[in-house]
Design goal:
The complex is a heterodimer of chains A (411) and B (222). Chain A is α+β, with helices and mostly antiparallel strands. Chain A has 13 helices and 12 strands. In chain A, strand 8 and strand 9 form a beta hairpin. The longest helix of chain A has 44 residues. The chains are: A alpha+beta (411), B alpha/beta (222). At the A-B interface, helix 1, helix 10, helix 11 and helix 13 of A face helix 2 and helix 3 of B.
Chain lengths: 411, 222
């Protein structure tokens, strides 16, 4: 038998000779590790779920909206200002790296009439790049084409909610919508997508920006530029979101001639940045939960120490015999330390199994999705071994210091 | 083999001091078989513990194989015990959870490594070849003491110390044990120091050292 292996078998013997006691000793560790694994897996699951929800909205999307209006100290809502222009959008498209597509929009409200339905609502003028930029899919019909855009065709693509509200059970394709004095024809219906950063696409009525310019006088800045309501930018590399945001900020500040110390007259929202903020927040919460669960690991460790002290007392004679046979202090010390570590290691493994089962069960109920990641498993097991070493240190030291003659004499 | 020069052992008992050994000088030659006798509290057990390197003298010098061991630290003493000394106790001191074979292997554990074949041979030598897998509580007292002898001798130490090896045994088993010890001594030339109360047992030895009040009072050749 290998020399290094002997202490482990000796320690293992110490564990298995008192099966019930060993099990009760490690129960605290088992529960602690299981709690850590379960809570962390729920946290990780929530994190992944939220991240995948966000990335389905387009994690490569940056949205720029005008800043608040500011008349004599009265501050309006974000987006109420008229500072962004079509020319800004063109500059972003031309001058900034990693920019894939740029989609400026201009929204204005119209009295919309379809049959007996008559309602006032927002109509958004878009460019053909709007579909790709916002990752929109057409459920039925087609999106606004270049041809439609160039000639300012009076055509509309509507969201699923709009379809339900205005057309109820009839097929809206080819039907007409009256907007103020104009009539537009429905050519496409968008797939439902849920909420996005710039209002829900499900509630949108999209027409070519060129058509909207004919139907409604587009606001112009003092320099004669065309004002837009928002600019969406799709970037080619998610990781460059912060870089692109910074570049856009610099570009727009110089275009808008904002001196140092003047607030931005626009707002930039990047899904990627929001996602990473949310992800970090959940990560912190998860760690906090794990730390609370880890307190029971600490309590379990104290239990291990207690039992090891009793065990040393009970085996005083055995220690004396081993010393008489030539065991050095470090042999005895090692034996009890390994025994403690072996106990908590077993506790860690059982705890991981239990935590994994609970996590799988939670997953099956469908209430929460859970992800047991290997790093947490490794961490939990090594922490429990560490606890064994830490709390086994003193009892083992006690054992090693016993006087062999007294130890041999004890009953 | 063993040279004790003016050895004293004093235990502090509160304010008073208890002198257990008072200037003991003893020589034991290599291959000798010596019995130590004396009433309870005469210091003979303390003497054996000192010879066995389980304890250190308060003053005086102890040379084991011409090497002074009375100044060694506890780690070095453990080393000496593991290499040079085998113990046999009155109460056997086997580990109850281990089989006879595993108990014998324990004797090699701290002396350089376990060799199962060697452990089996040691059990055969004491006539327990068919009892290797029995636990101590499944063995008679005499058998247990034979396992203990096998454990003490499996690492081939030059010195064997026995503290009343027959004290817990009936006279028949006691005879068996003493026969095993004498034949080991005769065949292997091992040095043997043994404490005993029974003159009949002591008569098997070559020399008897009588202790009283922490001093050697009489030495007689058998």
């Amino acid at each position: 038998m290998k020399r290094w292996f002997e202490p482990v078998t000796t320690a293992w013997l110490g564990v298995v000779t008192h099966k019930l006691r060993s099990f009760l000793t490690i129960l605290g560790i088992v529960i602690g590790v299981a709690a850590v694994i379960t809570l962390m897996s729920i946290g990780r699951g929530a994190q992944q779920q939220i991240l995948s929800n966000i990335s389905s909205l387009g994690s490569n999307l940056i949205t720029i909206r005008p800043g608040a209006t500011n008349f004599g100290g009265v501050r309006g809502a974000v987006g109420s200002g008229s500072t962004l222009t079509l020319e800004d959008a063109a500059a972003i498209s031309e001058q900034i790296q990693y920019v894939d597509t740029v989609a400026p929009t201009y929204s204005t409200s119209f009295q919309v009439v379809v049959g007996a339905q008559n309602t006032r609502t927002q109509v958004t003028g878009v460019t053909t790049g709007y579909q790709d930029t916002n990752n929109l899919k057409v459920a039925d019909g087609a999106f606004i084409s270049d041809y439609d855009y160039q000639r300012g065709a009076k055509v509309a693509v509507i969201g699923s909610n709009v379809k339900d509200t205005l057309f109820a059970d009839t097929d809206p394709l080819g039907q007409q919508i009256r907007m103020g004095n104009y009539v537009v024809r429905v050519i496409g219906i968008l797939e439902s997508k849920g909420l996005s950063l710039v209002g829900s696409a499900d509630d949108a009525i999209l027409i070519p920006l060129t058509a909207l310019q004919q139907m409604s006088a587009q606001t112009r800045t003092s320099r004669g530029d065309h004002v837009v309501s928002s600019i969406s930018v799709a970037i080619s590399d998610d990781k460059q979101a912060t870089y692109v945001s910074d570049e856009i900020t610099t570009l727009l500040r110089s275009r808008h001639q904002l001196g140092p110390g003047v607030d931005n007259d626009f707002n930039i929202l990047s899904l990627q940045e929001i996602a990473s903020t949310i992800s970090q927040t959940i990560g912190t919460m998860t760690l906090l939960l794990g730390a609370i669960a880890a307190i029971s690991l600490l309590v379990g460790g104290i239990g291990v120490m207690n039992i090891m002290l009793v065990s040393v007392l009970e085996r005083t004679r055995e220690i004396g015999i081993r010393k008489a046979l030539g065991a050095r202090e470090r042999d005895i010390w090692g034996q009890f330390l390994i025994e403690a570590a072996l106990l908590t290691f077993a506790g860690g493994i059982i705890g991981v199994g239990l935590g994994w089962l609970i996590a799988a069960f939670v997953n099956r109920t469908g209430a929460l999705s859970t992800v047991v990641s290997p790093d947490i498993v490794i961490l939990a097991v090594s922490v429990s071994v560490g606890i064994g070493l830490f709390f086994g240190f003193y009892p083992a030291w006690n054992a090693s210091r016993l006087n062999p003659i007294d130890a041999l004499r004890s009953e | 083999m063993i040279r004790l020069e003016n050895i004293s052992k004093v235990y502090p008992m509160g304010k008073r001091k208890l002198t257990v050994l008072n200037g003991v000088s003893v020589n034991i030659e290599r291959g000798e078989m010596v019995a130590i006798m004396g009433p309870s509290g005469s210091g003979k057990s303390t003497m054996l513990n000192l010879i066995g390197c389980l304890d250190k003298p308060t003053s005086g010098s102890y040379y084991l194989e011409d090497k002074e061991v009375s100044r060694l630290n506890s780690g070095e003493l453990a080393q000496v015990r593991s290499q040079k000394i085998g113990f046999v106790f009155q109460s056997f001191n086997l580990l109850p959870r281990l089989s006879a074979l595993a108990n014998v292997e324990l004797g090699m554990r701290y002396a350089g490594g376990v060799d199962r074949r060697q452990a089996r041979e040691a059990l055969e030598k004491v006539g327990l070849a068919d009892r290797t897998s029995h636990r101590p509580n499944e063995l008679s007292g005499g058998e247990q003491q034979r396992v203990a002898i096998a454990r003490a001798l499996v690492k081939n130490p030059p010195l064997l110390l026995a503290d009343e090896p027959t004290g817990n045994l009936d006279s028949h088993s006691g005879e068996e044990i003493i026969h095993i010890l004498t034949s080991l001594h005769a065949e292997q030339g091992i040095t043997l120091v043994m404490i005993t109360h029974e003159l009949k047992i002591a008569r098997y030895c070559q020399r008897i050292i009588h202790f009283s009040d922490g001093q050697v009072v009489k030495e007689e050749k058998v």
